[in-house]
Design goal:
Elements (H helix, E strand, L loop, with lengths): L1 H12 L49 E5 L2 H4 L14 E10 L4 E9 L3 H13 L3 E2 L12 H6 L27 E3 L7 E3 L2 E3 L22 H8 L3 E2 L11 E3 L4
Parallel strand pairs: 2-4
Antiparallel strand pairs: 1-2, 2-3, 5-9, 6-7, 8-9
Helix pairs in contact: 3-5
Length: 247
C-alpha cells in the first residue's frame, strides 16, 4: 500500500505546472498634435515615498523638432508677443510616466534652445524621474491656471510674469522657460499657492514622486545646461519653473 501511495504522489509531482499567463503590455503613447481643445484638470493625490529601485527602460530616449504655425499656437499667442511662430519649435520627446512607462509628449520652445531642452530631458528620462503629462498649453486655451491644475508640463505661453512689481513678460513668452509637474511643484506668491491642488506639496521635506528638490534629476539636468531653477527664489519659490536666465 505504501508503494501504491508513493507511486500516486510521484504521478502528482510529475504533472506539468500550468505556465503563468504573460502580463499585458501597456500600449505605447503616441504624441498628439497641438490642439486647442480643453483638457480636464486632475488633482494629484500625495503618495508615500517608496524605496528607489531601478526600472529598465521600455524605450530609448528619442526627440524631434518641427516648426509650428500661428494657428497651432492658438490662444497661447497673440499680436504683440515678443516672439512669433517663426521663432518657435514643437519638440516631441520621450518622458517617463508615473505609471513607470515610457511616454511621448510635446513642448513648444524657442528654436535656439531646442537641443538644450532635449539634452536636459534626456538626463531626466535616464534618471526615471516621473512626469504626469506634457502637452502644449494651447490645449488649455493658453490658460496657465488650467494647465497647472492638470499637472501639465509645458513651455511657451505668451503671458506676463506672475510676480510683484512692474508688469514684464514671463520667460514663457519667449519659449525659454519650462514648468514641470505643476501640482507636485507649486508656485507660492504672497501666501497663495498655484495651483491650489499643490498645497499638500508645499511641505518640501516630505519628498514624493514627481517633486523637484535640490539634487533631484531635473535640477541637476537643467543646471548642467546652464538654466536656473525657480525653487531657489527665496521669497516666492516656484518649484516647477526652469528658465534660461533663472527668472
Amino acid at each position: 500500500m505504501a508503494v501504491t501511495l508513493a507511486a500516486a504522489l510521484g504521478a502528482c509531482n510529475d504533472a506539468p505546472t500550468p505556465a503563468a499567463a504573460p502580463s499585458p503590455t501597456p500600449p505605447a503613447t503616441v504624441a498628439s498634435p497641438i490642439a486647442t481643445t480643453s483638457v480636464p484638470a486632475v488633482t494629484a493625490t500625495p503618495t508615500p515615498t517608496k524605496p528607489a529601485h531601478h526600472v529598465a527602460a521600455a524605450a530609448p530616449f528619442r526627440w524631434s523638432s518641427r516648426p509650428v504655425s500661428t494657428a497651432e499656437l492658438g490662444k497661447s499667442w497673440h499680436h504683440g508677443c515678443p516672439v512669433g511662430a517663426a521663432s518657435l519649435r514643437a519638440v516631441t520627446l520621450t518622458f517617463w510616466g508615473f505609471d513607470h512607462t515610457a511616454r511621448t509628449g510635446t513642448l513648444v520652445v524657442n528654436a535656439r534652445v531646442v537641443s538644450t531642452v532635449a539634452d536636459a530631458f534626456r538626463q531626466i528620462y535616464a534618471a526615471r524621474f516621473p512626469i504626469r503629462r506634457m502637452v502644449p498649453i494651447a490645449a488649455y486655451g493658453g490658460d496657465d491656471n488650467k494647465s497647472m491644475a492638470a499637472d501639465n508640463t509645458s513651455s511657451f505661453n505668451c503671458r506676463p510674469a506672475v510676480s510683484n512689481g512692474p508688469k514684464t513678460w514671463s520667460m514663457h513668452a519667449y519659449g525659454e522657460a519650462i514648468d514641470i509637474n505643476t501640482v507636485e511643484n507649486p508656485y507660492t506668491l504672497d501666501g497663495t499657492v498655484r495651483p491650489p491642488s499643490g498645497k499638500p506639496y508645499t511641505n518640501r521635506s516630505w519628498v514624493r514622486p514627481g517633486m523637484i528638490v535640490r539634487g533631484s534629476s531635473p535640477t541637476r539636468a537643467f543646471s548642467a545646461v546652464g538654466w536656473g531653477w525657480g525653487g531657489n527664489w527665496s521669497s516666492s519659490p516656484d518649484y516647477q519653473h526652469f528658465s534660461t536666465n533663472g527668472r
